[in-house]
Amino acid sequence: QVRLVESGGGLVQPGGSLRLSCAGSGISVSISTMDWYRQAPGKQRELVATITPNSNTMYADSVKGRFTISRDNAENTVYLQMNSLEPEDTGVYYCHRRFNEYWGQGTQVTVSS
Q: What's 43's DSSP letter?
């Protein structure tokens, strides 16, 4: 059974940092194109960052220079390091595997003073 389990969300002040984790089971993240999406209240889900099997990375313009996607093959886990967080980064963050469209359950990130 395939599972993607996100963790690491929480409440942080503007300018702070969080690191999200996406632990995979039943799949190998090292040979998968993996994404992080987010959905803010009342808005559509948007693509935030992508990492390919060749370790190429791509970012939404709104997070470039602040967020970093990475992967630990031994842990079968994908990470999203988020720095200089802004209130506009608030939302539920989802891990996604493109092949077969697997989604995690999401983790809430709230940026507020």
A: S
Question: In whole angstroms, what is the distance from residue 94 CA to residue 58 CA?
Answer: 16
Mean pLDDT value across residues 76-100: 97
Give 89's DSSP letter: G
Give the tens place of pLDDT for each residue, 21-55: 999 999 999 999 999 999 999 999 999 999 999 99
Phi then psi for residue 59, to 5 deg, are -135, 150
Q: Which of 30, 11, 13 is nearest to 71 (CA)?
A: 30
Alpha helices in the chain (DSSP H): none
Give the Å distances, CA to CA, from 36 to 91, 113: 12, 25
Gap between the Cα atoms of 96 and 101, Å rounded: 7
